[in-house]
Amino acid sequence: MSKNIGSQRGRAALTPTIIERIAGLIEDWPVERSLTWDSVVAQAEAYLRHRWTRQGLERHPRIKSAYEAKRLRHREFARTGTVPKPRRPEIELRLQQMAKLAAEIEKAKRIVREYDERFILLQAAALRHGLTLAQLEANLPSIDRSVTDPILAKVRRL
User: What domain of life (predicted)?
Assistant: First the structure.
């Protein structure tokens, strides 16, 4: 006899498939209907024929994030009376990441602009003091470390 999710006795593990199904139930929940953990537990029981506790469901981040996202949409509906576009938590996360990356790009562009301004200022000052463009583009002289490093100075003497 195979173990059935629908049995009311014993425990039924929340497998990744079941977690996704419950999260899907929450995400598909009508905004007009009140969403509570009790109603989620009852709906999951009706759909999967096993009763889990609120604590058992809430313990899983995927279910909890779906619940919190739907609660936010429900509050928005209660405040405005319009149904907001549903967004999955993964989409919200990606949008936040994109906004963060866009801010980082703007910061990098600002820094590059400041470096460009600084370069132009230094180049103009160098030309004003008689340095030619060829002198500015010349390689830097190599550094003789044996002059400043006592260990290398001893090795050179040997």
Answer: Bacteria
